[in-house]
Amino acid sequence: MPTTKRWLQRYDYVPPARMVLLPSELTDRQEEIERAFFASLRLKNGTYKTTRGQRLNDVNELLLRHLPRDHVLQLMDVAVSSGVATREWAEALDRAALEYELWAGDVSLEAYLLGNGAALNLLADNTGYILQFEIAGDAFPAPVGRYNLLRFGPQILWMRIANRAFRPEAGDSSLQGWFKKSGWRKQDVLLLSPRVKSHPRLHFLQDDIMRLRSDLAKMDALRAANILNESYFSPGQLRRMFENLRSRVKDNGLLLVCRTDESEVNHATLFRCGIHTVSVVDRLGGGSAIEKLVL
Ligand SMILES: C[S@@+](CC[C@H](N)C(=O)[O-])C[C@H]1O[C@@H](n2cnc3c(N)ncnc32)[C@H](O)[C@@H]1O
Fold it and tell me: Cα-flanking dihedrals φ and ψ of residue 243, to 5°?
């Protein structure tokens, strides 16, 4: 198992998933390690898990100014990545002494580690899509670039075969039995920062905002930060996501859409969602670029 110390000495490779998700120790540079790890993960739908602490402080303040205080709030944060920004929202709500439950979803939350107990390890999402390879302590994201393909072609092929045997839809096969006898093991993990899991009012769930869902409580407010981006999705997809999120909010509930730009400035719009109407309540920076699509 590569140690945190070893990674800190070498910046030329990505922190291995095992080191970040199952740490033997938390260091004072944990934030930096997690940020490098999550930013390196490219998901099946082409989005990245980029996030960082203190990114949404002004967004949290804006929400605090508009949240009601007369009942226990149902709140949701979508596309939360490592969860650090959601944890900070919870802490801001705690400081303001609000009563709430906060639901935090991401399409890529449930994942697994697969390894042969020696040099070969990989991280895949819960559909079996590989996110990271780790070979003898050197970790690199998938899709694999030419350099790593030339260095590790046979090992990568072998790991892909092992992953086919273990991915969820494969079930128990004789190939999987063979790999198990050879020492391969699969371990379920959550793609979350180890620092965020234990907050009594924060509940994480697997959640694809492209899908409608009816199993959630209606929310007083929902936050969608750095996901409804024109660079990620087509106008049609963005409209669909917005409508799906709107359907999760109570009548007259709040929906905040935000994008953090390259200079770390937040551009957000806070919408109020009636049954038949959507209106703008407040803005940060230049407002959300998707306003023109949804109003
Ligand atoms: C750039 S991160 C945003 C993290 C955090 N909200 C922030 O602002 O720091 C984008 C996240 O969106 C998630 N994501 C991508 N497609 C999604 C979808 N269809 N439904 C839910 N989450 C999605 C990714 O897994 C990733 O964690």
Answer: -65, -40
Q: Can you give the residue ranges of every domain in the chain?
A: 4-40+110-190, 57-108+192-294
Instruction: Give the whole-angstrom CA distance, residue 69 versus residue 207.
Output: 27
Q: Is the CB of 49 within 6 Å of ligand 1?
A: yes
Distance of CA 157 to the CA centre of its chain: 27
Strand order in the sheet with 138-141: 138-141, 130-135, 120-125, 110-115, 185-190
Which atom of ligand 1 lies nearest, measured to the CA of 108? 25
Q: How far apart are the C-alpha atoms of 12 and 9, rounded to whole Å?
A: 9
CATH code for the part of the protein at 57-108+192-294? 3.40.50.150
**Rounded to an integer, what distance in angstroms lies between the CA atom of residue 172 and that of residue 199?**
36
Q: Quick one: tokens of 151?
A: 């260095």
Residues 6+ apart with CB under 8 A from 242: 228, 255, 257, 290, 293, 294
Nearest CA owner, ligand 1 atom 5:
80
Backbone angles phi, psi at 275, to 5 degrees: -65, -40
Measure the CA–CA gap between 83 and 204, rounded to whole angstroms.
9
- Profile the chain (295 residues) by mean pLDDT over runs of 10 residues: 55 82 87 93 93 94 97 98 96 97 97 96 97 95 92 96 93 91 97 90 97 94 97 96 96 97 97 95 97 92
The C-alpha atoms of residue 38 and residue 15 are separated, in whole angstroms, by 9
Tell me which residue has its CA closest to atom 13 in ligand 1: 79
DSSP state of 235: H
